[in-house]
Amino acid sequence: MPQAVVSVSHVSKQFGNLVAVDDISFDIEAGTTAALLGGNGAGKTTTLSMLLGLLLPTSGSIHVFGQDMLRDRYSVLPRMNFSSPYVDLPRRLTVRQNLSVYAGLYGLANPRARIERVAEELYLAELMDRPYGQLSAGQKTRVVIAKSLLNEPEMLLLDEPTASLDPDTADYVRGMLEKYKTRTGATILLASHNMSEVERLCDDVIMLRAGKIVDRGTPVGLLQRYGRQNMEEVFIDIARDRRIELGLDKKGKGK
Amino acid sequence: MNELLHPQAGFGASLRRVGAIVRRHIYLLRSSGPRILELVYWPTVQMVLWGFITVFLVNHSSWVAQASGVLISGVLLWDVLFRGQLGVSLVFMEEMWSRNLGHLFVSPLRPGELAAALLVMSLIRTLIGVGGAALIAIPLFHFSIFDIGLPLLAFFTNLIVMGWAIGLLVSGIVLRHGLGAESMAWIAIFAVQPISGVYYPIETLPVWLQYVAHILPSSHVFEGMRAVLFEGNFRTDLLVNALLLNAVYLSAGVAAFLAYFHVARVRGQLLHVGE
After folding, report:
1. ipTM of the modeled complex
2. B271: contact with A, CB 8 A cutoff
3. What is the pTM of this model?
4. Which domains are present in chain A?
């Protein structure tokens, strides 16, 4: 029986009167690459933040690797990592210094070798002694992804992992994530606006709108259900709430 | 267990994480001349100013003439308190300015470990800044604060601990209210300067304000400093008062920092750092 690495149960998050996430529940099985999809303000980043324990839910429970993220967060965090274009690294530190600091925070037993390996995988070797702040947006994204792979996480959370990357580099990063997953069997959860990325990488898609889960399935399953050619069209159908006119009920199932 | 990683629990693991944060800020200091200059600049300017005031007052004030180092000692020790607080607050704000908090707190770093790293960095920064000014005072004004001897260590310890407590409180306030509150780091400590008796005895204050002064560890330190300089007498009663008050202050500072961190997790301020 497949094991749930992430188990989210009736989680809500309110900021004052604003309900950012509204009673969502889902499991993610080990080895899955899952996507949280939704328009701006749908609750993707809020959900990711709660999964990481950066944000406390108003109600509900979150378990990662079977452990309660509210109570046992620090025994889970060494097995996870995170990358986001909206969180930066110190700009004056070189790439090597930044990676070395995070190697220390994660307690890498052989930091130098691991840093060299991750740098090689992400084509960072020539950038290692340059200050992070002097890199292009794409290079910075690669460094942050390198940071997120340092501890070889079993659970990787990626917020828009290829935003600001040119198509060639974005394709390389997707390939690298695929290889990483094949090699380690890691579970990956990503939030993305890039639908071709989701079609290529993910085998489970959770669609969010206004803080609620409005649909869920494999990319192929969602394409069939909505009768669309690509995930972008499915995304627009869900974002504009066209499910009823398409003959899909509230839970996204065909009538 | 991931074979790439050392064990994550225990004192050794904590020490490693604290060391990583300290290393991060040493890298930063090494890479930035203006930051190092800033450390030494203000304590030196203050020391020079009060040095010349001393040169003038020695001939015009019998009180200063009795212990010519009283003003320079005051300014250098005040800077221990100020730099101690600023060291904590500025190092914390460096993480906010670089929008790095989100990455730090998805790593196994505990907030208490970050606080410990801030204290270590504050100590390093204070030693560089005030130590530099104290060394410059020797050739410039023929005054060495190190002549105070062992009591200096007690004064330094108490003042930097009080600075840490206020620095942690200010860091928590900045985390809670955003970088719009960063000016607190520069001004908060000056609220206690007039009642700490840095340059004059506490008895100069109105009686009601003397009661307030007595709940500040700093006022006991500066009274103790004058006792050493004027009478050659090290007042252990004042030292004990300062130590006890500092135990309360530091506990309150740590508790405030952790409480503000909890609020930041409730309000989602660790990922979205701003004004």
Report:
1. 0.89
2. yes
3. 0.91
4. 4-87+154-239 (3.40.50.300)
